Every structure is written in C-alpha cells, then in structure tokens.
UniProtKB/TrEMBL annotation:
Compositionally biased spans, kind Polar residues: 111-120
Superkingdom of origin organism: Eukaryota
Protein name in the entry: Uncharacterized protein
Disordered as annotated region, ranges: 86-120, 372-395
UniProt biased composition (Low complexity): 86-110, 372-381
Amino acid sequence: MSLGVVASLLSPEAGSPGGRNLAESIIARHRRKGHRNPTAGTNLATTKDSTIASKATTTAASKATTTAVIKATTTTASISTTAVSTDSNLPISKNGKGTTTTTTANNGNAQTSLTLDPSVFGSNPAKTGLEANADAGTVASLTTTNNFINFCVGKQIMNGLQGPNGEVLCNPVHMGGLPPVTKMVGSKFQSPKNLATIATNTAFDIVLAVSNLETGAFVNPQLNYFGTLQQLNSQNTIIGHSYVVVELINSLDDTTVTNPQKFAFFKGLNGKAVNGRLTATVSAGLPAGVYRVASINAASNHQPVLVPVAQHCALDDMVYFTVSNNVADVNNAAASAARNKAITTTAAKTTTTTKAVTTVKAVKATTTAKTTKVKTTTGGRSSRGRRFFSPSTEP
C-alpha cells in the first residue's frame, strides 16, 4: 500500500504532510525490524505494511464514526433544547410569547450565535390568516417557519444605510420590543396652535408635548438607520426620539395628496424632553403660505414607533397654520386668539359664579323649607282639644 493511501487513512485531510510523515515513520520503523520468510520468500516488512494499512483503515473508520456521532449528538442537542408550542388553538401562551421558553443553547450566548434559538419560534407565522374567522377581503399573510431569517437573501440589505437614491432595500433586522397598551406613545402640539397665523420670515418655536417615550436616544442615521430593533427601558417605555416636519400646502381646505420628498422644514428632536415637551426653533421663519406641521415619533434607530395593537389612536399629531406677510392679519389673529381665550376664561368664571349663586340659593331654599316644616309641625290640638307637641319640641 502506498504512503499516500496510509496517510489518507491516518490524517483528517487526505494526503496532508502530517499524514504522510506519520505513515512514513510507522512503515520505516517496521521495515527496519522485518526479515524474509524462508519458506515463502516474501518480505515480512511488506506483510506488516499490509497489516498496518488494515489497522489504519479500521482506526480511521472508527474515528470517522465517532466524529459523526459526536456531531450528530451536538446538532440534536442544539435543536432539542427548547420545546415549542404548536397548538393552533392557543394563539399565544400564558407568558404572552406564543412559546414555552427555556434556556438557550449556543454555549449560553444567544445574542452572538449564528444559530436561531428554537425558543423564538411561534406557530402563527406559518399561517396565512385565512384558515378561520377572516373578514371578507382579507389577503393572505406571507408565511414562515424560520422567522424569515433568510428573507433578504438575493436582495440588497440595508446594512444600517438609508436609500435616498431610489434603492430597493431589504432590512433583515426584526421589529423588537413592543410596549404594553398602557405605555403607547401619545403626542400633541402646543405651538403653533391649530389654524394660527404667523408672521413671514420670523422665527418661531414648534413645541410638541409627548408621553410614554424615553426621549433623547438618537443613533447615527448615516450608519445605523433601522440597524437594530425597537427597545424598551425598564419601565417598558419605548426608547427613542421625535421629529417635526413642516409642509407647504395650497390652502386650509386643500385635498391634494402631498409629496413626502418635499418639505419646508425638518428637524430631529434629539434632546430629552423638558417637562414632557420637545422644542424645535424655526430660526429663519417661513415664507407666506399655508402649512401643516406633523410629528414623527421614532425608536432610537429612527423607525416609527411600534405598538402591540392595531386599534389605537394616532401616535403622532398634526396641525395647520398660516404664514402671512400682512401684519394686520397676524395682529388680528393674535387679537382673535387673545379674545377667544378671554371669552373662554370669562365663560368659565361665569359658570363658576352661577354655580356658586345656585348653590347659595339652594341652601337658602332648603333652610327655609326646614324652618317652615318645623313651624308647621311643632304643635297643635287633638280632636279632643288636648294640646300636643312633636318629639323634637316637647318639653
């Protein structure tokens, strides 16, 4: 048998230098000890070579079998570390995750492993949604049995980069943490007021009040855009930030669909909210026209905030306002706003006064009625002419 064959049997890699060196050493050692068979005239070293080759074959086969068994056992252990709930009658389990979770494999570090842990599988993503109780017109959902881990194969992945030039991108990152319904984001513009009028080319502040958002978290949009999933803090509140965007429209009653690429002002509100409010200053003001301003509440990697239910109020706010170069319009608008505020305040005071007067009158009427009742029932004479007294006034 050739040295190459023996080397291939003794080495994990066929014909490798290590295998050949080991084979040469073994065969040379046995040849030095060999002698001829006087009867058959054959070299015993050659016979021993065959024996060595046979043993090497057996040893290699044994090693290969052992290795295969170890690998198979490891793979099986990795796959079988978690039991997954597949009961179609239970859309979610008691822990709210749709699975029965246990400890992960992957050497105890699931966050660096390239193997998908079975505990993150759910049963419903494999269904189209048309199996039962679907409304008329419902379309089939895309399905998966592996959490879409390879969905972006063959596509241009985002890789944390934006696509400003019309690129068709695919994001392989999951959605991440969703807050409870009691922690869904809410927002409302404090300034400008809806239908307000502002002077042209004059600085003004946009003030947004926001709740249930841990503001001030803003990653690099040139490198980490949509680069990771939505995260929650220890109070189960979304970690992120907000934007405000101003668009020019034709009129207050305009119904034309706007172009998302055309905006008059855009600002990321990167700082933490002060008393629940975020502020952006439009330092150069705006030209005359009619505008709308909207909020965009986002997670730290700039994706719009995600919540756990479909039926919810708007998570963002929008108001409309006018920018005018007519000082009279601005002054009239300011005066009108002040007048409306004064009227509202006066109405509130009048309501309070009316309530107070009504309360006083009611108290007086009640007192008078009680007095009259006492006078009427404090005494009298019976049918026999005998005077009687009520229990409350009898001496």
